[in-house]
Amino acid sequence: xxxxxxxxxxxxxxxxxxxxxxxxxxxxxxxxxxxxxxxxxxxxxxxxxxxxxxxxxxxxxxxxxxxxxxxxxxxxxxxxxxxxxxxxxxxxxxxxxxxxxxxxxxxxxxxxxxxxxxxxxxxxxxxxxxxxxxxxxxxxxxxxxxxxxxxxxxxxxxxxxxxxxxxxxxxxxxxxxxxxxxxxxxxxxxxxxxxxxxxxxxxxxxxxxxxxxxxxxxxxxxxxxxxxxxxxxxxxxxxxxxxxxxxxxxxxxxxxxxxxxxxxxxxxxxxxxxxxxxxxxxxxxxxxxxxxxxxxxxxxxxxxxxxxxxxxxxxxxxxxxxxxxxxxxxxxxxxxxxxxxxxxxxxxxxxxxxxxxxxxxxxxxxxxxxxxxxxxxxxxxxxxxxxxxxxxxxxxxxxxxxxxxxxxxxxxxxxxxxxxxxxxxxxxxxxxxxxxxxxxxxxxxxxxxxxxxxxxxxxxxxxxxxxxxxxxxxxxxxxxxxxxxxxxxxxxxxxxxxxxxxxxxxxxxxxxxxxxxxxxxxxxxxxxxxxxxxxxxxxxxxxx
Length: 544
Hints:
Layout: H1 3-23, H2 26-29, E1 32-35, E2 38-43, H3 47-53, H4 57-88, H5 100-103, H6 115-139, E3 144-152, E4 154-162, H7 164-169, H8 172-201, E5 205-207, E6 212-217, H9 222-225, E7 233-237, E8 240-241, H10 245-249, E9 259-266, E10 269-276, E11 279-284, H11 289-293, E12 300-304, E13 307-308, H12 312-321, E14 328-338, E15 343-348, E16 354-355, E17 358-359, H13 360-367, E18 380-381, E19 384-388, E20 391-395, H14 398-404, H15 412-415, H16 431-434, E21 437-439, H17 448-472, H18 480-502, H19 512-543
Antiparallel strand pairs: 1-2, 2-3, 3-4, 5-21, 6-7, 6-20, 7-8, 7-9, 9-10, 11-19, 12-13, 12-14, 14-15, 14-16, 17-18
Helix pairs in contact: 4-8, 4-19, 6-8, 6-17, 8-17, 8-18, 18-19
């Protein structure tokens, strides 16, 4: 049965249970409350714990002030990021546009959030968020009416319910600190987990052996057809040791298509695989000479312009120095039955014998002028990305390095690659990927599975707390940042009023009702703008 149909069935059964319980007045008898399809289970247990935690009022007052600074900083930063991202929409192809599921942080529904680690991260994020609100409420002498859990089939979160009337009547500074404490605490939890990751957990892991980790396999390539899997590790080729990704890039083959022996580590087992060697087409850009000639990913380039292709460097050199004024000869090998060998191998494709290259500088000037270079003048261009054997590889310490060195990169965005690990398939680390590493040092006694469960758990608590904190800091009601923004805006209006009253300004100070009207209008406009900026990332690429 389709997953969406199962989810819809479960949801409808859940709604039916809620309706029946409501008609039987069951929820009122067990101190529960309905809020649409959500069931709020309330209790007074836990209030004493909040009261005990709130006794150190001086510390929590300072913590509230710090949370205000963090929330305002996050509010400004994320709003600017949303505005910046809105300008990039025009450059995003429809097929790469984010889907609605990607914008919803629900484990299982969002494809990059693993269910169990996601539930753990959300549970921690909501609990610390709500307890922070509760503690700052008691510091301001605001009564906590109840605590509880929110269910939508499964537990979806927790809540602390301060008295609304007392919140409205308390001093503005108390109210601002109360609202800012939620996202501020999420950011603190994310920061603590971040430090644990980069200072304790990640430095304690090392590769089982040096080599080149396969993080991508080209379909229909030698590696694909002869059993090399993603998250294998290549240890040797033709008896020569491979200790890094560069060793793979520097391989030289006697003749394309000849058999080579490749030693591979996968799930703790080392095996030897024999496959055709050579430079393999990894990618083909649409509309380029390679695409027009019928060249496809996975093919081995045997020769170009009467030159046998033995290595990646040679392939690049031959392409750039070949003629683009007339077609040049090309020979490619593709997977099929080799009658001479009596088995499936890579054989010459008779349909591809020539290719018309183009001037590289002119191609980039027309299609991607920002990436053009003076060095491309007079060079030829084919339109392929290439690799050896049909694998994309990284160094064996790559996965641990992205945790221990999160701020390396040529641009600001690439410097924060640790946040993007789920998008690139490097979190959670499990299965064959986890088998390539082992814990060392103080954590050496931990079983490998236990280490990675711990590592993944801390990472997802970090990631989800960061996302929850940033989202709640946005200046849009009903998010916490929206209420912080309203109070700060009210304070600004009051200062302007006071200044106007002290000067000879003929304009009358605003009345309380006028201020509230202006503040409501500004807050609503900003909330709508934030919603538009988020939705624009979904809609924009599909319009243009």
